[in-house]
Design goal:
The protein is an alpha+beta fold. The protein has helices spanning 2-6, 27-41, 45-55, 58-69; strands at residues 10-15, 18-23. It contains 4 helices and 2 strands, in the order H-E-E-H-H-H.
Length: 71
């Protein structure tokens, strides 16, 4: 836990003789941040995004399309 706290992934608060830890961000925010970090190292971001979309189920691709179109 201390390692995650030092990396900024957790907040900690003194509780008795120990600490109480809480995440600094939700799972969805963490996943989005990781996806962004991974895309940063891709040689061709467009190809990486296309490969990612190929892995998504059809209904999730449709959801993403609606989000991008602003609906």
């Amino acid at each position: 836990m201390t390692r995650l706290w030092r990396k900024g992934r957790l907040r900690r608060r003194r509780r008795g003789n120990g600490y109480e830890y809480q995440p600094t961000q939700g799972r969805e925010e963490y996943a989005a941040r990781r996806m962004s970090e991974i895309l940063e190292v891709a040689e061709d971001r467009t190809v990486a995004l296309h490969r990612f979309l190929d892995l998504l189920p059809e209904n999730e691709r449709e959801d993403l399309k609606e989000l991008l179109e602003g609906e």
